[in-house]
Amino acid sequence: MAAETPHAQTQRLDRWLWFARFFKSRTLAASIVSAGKVRVNTERVGKPSHSVKTGDVLTFPAAKQVRVIKIVDLGTRRGPAPEAQALYEDQAPPEPRKTAERPQKVAEREAGAGRPTKRERRQTTALKKGFD
Fold this sequence. Notes:
alpha+beta, Structural Genomics Hypothetical 15.5 Kd Protein In mrcA-pckA Intergenic Region, Chain A, 2 domains, 5-stranded antiparallel sheet, 5 helices
């Protein structure tokens, strides 16, 4: 008659984010959650102690992009990267590749051409200022 405790099926949000290696420290994960930047199942969460379970979808900013993650498993420790990647499934669409052409490298010289003359240095400087 021993029913499973709810603690066995849930985990603190800041702890799970740290176990899954999205943040380098649990304190950093807690500060992101406290700032209200994390959503669990489309609802904004403000407490690092918020309980998460398998099947929950997390949305949060990380590394200049918005991550959409589905929790597959709850962690027991902060292990190596392959172990951490088994804890979640990435739901975000892949980033579109930049198809824009980069400007041609007109400011670069051929290898072994020697030191640039004063006139060439002025042209290079003017060209670089034009791109800024």
